[in-house]
Amino acid sequence: MVRTAERILGTYFYDTSFGYLSESKAAGLAIFLSLGTVLGLAIAGNLFAQRKGRQRKWLVTRLYIITIIACYSLAILAIPRLRYFVDSPELIIFFQVVSSLCMGFGIAVMYSLIPGLVGSAFGRHRGSYIAYTDGVAFGISSIVWKVVANAVGNGNPDGGGWAYGWAAVALLIVLCAILMVEFMEHYFVRGHGKHNGTYETIILA
C-alpha cells in the first residue's frame, strides 16, 4: 500500500495546499517517498543484514511504528481546520514531505528485503512466489486506494477527506505489522531459540 502511494501522493499534496502548489510541483514532491525508501535500504537495510533473529524482529517493529506514525501525520496534516489554524502552506507542505520521507524509510526493509528472504525457501519456485505475492499485494492496494478515493471524493472540498483516507491506511498497516511481527516470531526467531515472543506481539498490538 505504501509503495503504491506514490501514485496518489501528488494529488494529496495538491488537494491540501489550498492552491499554493501547482499540479506539476505537487506531483514532483511524490519523489520523496521513493527517496525515503532508498534511504531506508541504505540505513535500515544495512542494520537488518547485520542482525539476527529477535534483533531483526525488533528492528522491523520499530520500522513499522515509524511508518504508522507517518501515515497518521499525513492524516492530521490533511485536516482543514489545522491547516487554517497554522496558516502557513509552506510549513504544512514541509511536514507532509517529511512524513512521506519517513513513510518510505519505514517500509523499505519489509517491502524489499523480507520477501526475498522468504522466497529463498521456495527454491526453484522463487520467481512464482514473488510474482504471486506482488500480484496479491497490488490487487489489495488497488482496493484500498479505491476506498481512499471515495473518502476523498465525499469529503471536505478543501481536502479533508484525505484525513479519513490516510487514517484508514494507517489502521491497515497496524494490522499488517501485527501479522508480520508474528510471522517473524514463528519462522525467523523461534527457530533460533525457545523464547516465546507471543507477549511481545500483544504489546505491539
From TrEMBL:
Swiss-Prot/TrEMBL keywords: Membrane, Transmembrane, Transmembrane helix
Source superkingdom: Eukaryota
InterPro entries in alphabetical order: MFS_trans_sf
TM region positions: 26-49, 61-79, 91-117, 129-149, 161-181
The keyword Nucleus appears for this protein: no
Keyword Ligase: no
Protein name: Major facilitator superfamily (MFS) profile domain-containing protein
Organism (species): Fragilariopsis cylindrus CCMP1102
